[in-house]
Amino acid sequence: MRLRGKTILLSGASSGIGRAAAELFAREGAAVALLARREALLEEVVRGIEAAGGRALALPGDITDEAFVAQAAARAAEWGGGLDAVLANAALGLVGEVEHFAYADWCRMLEVNLGGTFLLVRAAIPHLRARGGGHVLAVGSELSRGAMPGLAGYVASKWGLLGFMRALSMELHRHNIRVCSVLPGGTLTDFGPDDAADKRARRERGERFLEPASVAEALLFALQQPPEARVTELDIMPM
Ligand SMILES: NC(=O)c1ccc[n+]([C@@H]2O[C@H](COP(=O)([O-])OP(=O)(O)OC[C@H]3O[C@@H](n4cnc5c(N)ncnc54)[C@H](OP(=O)(O)O)[C@@H]3O)[C@@H](O)[C@H]2O)c1
Prior knowledge:
The protein is an alpha/beta fold. The chain is built from 7 helices and 7 strands. A 7-stranded parallel beta sheet has the order 3-2-1-4-5-6-7, with helices on both faces.
């Protein structure tokens, strides 16, 4: 029960890494507030956590809706008696070479991946400060420092996320708020054009992938730092 008494707000908690993190944090005693669009999936996650004796709250909505995100953060803090951590995990992964990539897709991906992160974090900061400190976590990618053809917009969003988090860390340090980006390699989720089943089939053929639960463990690690330390970036790659 390493997170007993903590309240954590997570985006993208309806599936994949966000769902695995929500389930792990709840098993460790945290009350988890779950933000994503697919309400039925969020309710399923909540029911699973409650059945295991944990506490969870569904906050269905779109991370790019400014008013909704502000209300969701306030609701999470009210429900949990405050907020100790926020995880910005929701993202969109659209594929296509730049020459043929629609500008609307470019804008939407940056809106979700960067704009949504900004809105969530900005809404959470006053609640973390009211607690006297806490954590801001984000899920970046190995592509936060790398590149890949056909993913220029996604790569740009994940490099941008890393820069945002580095500057944020400098801003929030004085408020006793730790800021950490967790940067996973390929993970067995439905993210991007290939679903988890496709990725599993590729793994059978020798490609390496992480389990979402392993990325969740890295996020849990980021929430448990020694008092004099701040871990600002964590890379997690498949063996
Ligand atoms: N899978 C990989 O190989 C991999 C590798 C490196 C990094 N990542 C990163 O890991 C994070 C989680 O992705 P995942 O792999 O777990 O894939 P996933 O299962 O597709 O999760 C993405 C989550 O984001 C949410 N989301 C997307 N757009 C949203 C919006 N407009 N408003 C609210 N929520 C939204 C989705 O929920 P709804 O659809 O219900 O809204 C879903 O819960 C992402 O930041 C991704 O960039 C993934």
